[in-house]
Design brief:
The chain is an alpha/beta fold and 252 residues long. 44% of the residues lie in helices and 16% in strands. It starts with 7 loop residues before the first strand and ends in a 9-residue tail after the last strand.
Amino acid sequence: MWNLNDKCALVTGGTKGIGKAAVLEFLELGAEVLFTSRTQKDIDLVLEELEKYGNKIHGLVADVTIADDRQKVFNFIEKEWGKLDILVNNAGINIRKKANDYSEEEFRKVMEINLNAPFELSRKLHSLLQKSGNAKIVNVASSAAMQDVGTGTPYAMSKAGLLQQTRSFAVEWAADGIRVNAVSPWFTVTPLTKGLLNESERMDNIIKRTPLNRVAKASEMAAIIAFLAMDKSSYITGQNIIADGGMSINAI
């Protein structure tokens, strides 16, 4: 059971950072994986890099905030697999501004991608998850969902909402054979955080707050996602795994 053999998995935003690491982790554990991105170029780069996995990996251009694209994802899974064992709602964005500097459009964009899209995609794929009989949803949230970590108010709001979505779906869909959990990373090395982590003062502050004295690797988040996607975690649902190197319990 320490594998994902014969499992069919979907990872949104699977071409970079934690999403890409999850795609690789799933493939190495034996799953067949579909990942999405908004650009064909990014999909092609990942497919080329992971070509050794052959027909076990698939990429699909889809913006999960758009209903027609969610339907496209549904159609692919229904046709190719007939069911879905694992859904990882990973796609997300942040616009780093103070709250008063946000436009209404920017606020809605953050909420649409980080909160509404996981809700709508999970609902859209519910019937296919139910057909699995033992399905798992893993939502990628953030340490910002529990406390202020300098990522901005709209981002924090969206991720906090995602945690409550996780809990509520876990209860509502337990009878359907669907477990729902979340992972909340602290600063992790990804293309989206590279610029921030290159700022020496910011990096020093992050390290000071983190007992493990380093930021995370994307592969470390992917390992937690994979565990929650495995049958080995069969009695865990509605939970949030805080992966922050001890930051949230550090009194400094």
